[in-house]
């Protein structure tokens, strides 16, 4: 099987979606059912791909997304396509069909058809192109804007509504990682169950492009880390619940603990609210925001952390939870969406809306050695259980379903 596989141009700014994409790419490389992977990438990813994915199966296909000409082509192609799609909901005039055809001719990603691949897998919610000859499969990670609309601006909700609708209507098949997301898509988009495949990614394996990690001494000097710390790797989206974690940290230190917090990940506009809280509560000496760090550094931070805390209010599936379990650092997390299924043991879960419950759980994870030992034993058991599944088989079956839908 020949797979055209899309890597999002924003790389690590895409957060967990990028690490998910790398994890699936590694899975496909290892699968004997896959002969060729045309890796569709932009020019800013050239060095990363050359360094991390030297494999005879992988054939990089670069599209100069950031050239002035292609920026103009993308803008016009997307505008025309979206106009045709929106107005096409109400009529099917010849003019709209012509506009749609013109948008495809302009879009640089029409290059995918020249590859003669069996499937074009876009491992994120929005494909850069629809309507091509090659079957398009998208991975829908969540529809959290429908659960927490207040966390999104009206513009963000409109953007997600339009692009989710396109993905649902125009993809030849849709993939999700968890059953609760499939249930959402059936409920909100009236999809048939047969149109959605649940394909869990290989959670027990390393999703990063490297197996290396930066040594503690280097990290302590580089990021001025003088004490043991809690780690929370997450972009600063509102649903990630940083503020309540800060409150718990403040309460713990006010009651005799000596705990620092290290946060990594893409810093969104919501970071301004977080900074205001940190300054107002005098937490600046306790909380470090490192932004997006190199993969080697992030793995090293996991290995250094005394505890990883994931207080999110919504998560399709938490990459940091699996990473913490994989790197054998004690980890506690919210009792929402797929996280209890991942953790299995309720002793390590807390209600992310309950400050007292979160505070007590962090205190146990920080000081209670028996609790920490049982937590790590649970992680070893879960990684062993997860290693038994044939993840590639589910993906190959989803690809075959996509082809048959034509």
Detailed description of the structure:
By secondary structure, the protein is α/β, with parallel strands linked by helices. Helices cover 45% and strands 14% of the residues. It is built from 15 helices and 13 strands. Strands 3-2-1-4-5-6-7 form a 7-stranded parallel beta sheet, sandwiched between helices. Helix 5 (154-170) links the parallel strand 5 and strand 6 (173-176). The protein starts with a strand and ends with a helix.
Strand arrangement, major sheet:
3-2-1-4-5-6-7
User: How far apart, in Å, are the first and last alpha carbons?
Assistant: 17 Å
User: Which secondary-structure class do the elements indicate?
Assistant: alpha/beta
Strand content: 5-15%
CATH class term of the largest domain: Alpha Beta
What oligomeric state best describes the polypeptide chains here? single chain
Brief descriptors of the model:
406 residues, alpha/beta, Rossmann fold, 2 domains, seven-stranded parallel β-sheet, six-stranded parallel β-sheet, 45% helix, globular
What is this structure, in a nutshell?
The chain is α/β, with parallel strands linked by helices.
Topology:
Layout (H helix, E strand, L loop, with lengths): L1 E5 L9 H15 L5 E7 L3 H7 L5 E6 L4 H20 L6 H13 L12 E4 L13 E4 L14 H17 L2 E4 L2 H11 L6 E3 L17 H8 L5 E5 L8 H13 L5 E5 L6 H10 L6 E3 L5 H10 L2 E4 L8 H8 L4 E4 L4 H5 L5 E2 L4 H13 L1 H18 L4 H14 L2
Helix pairs in contact: 3-4, 8-13
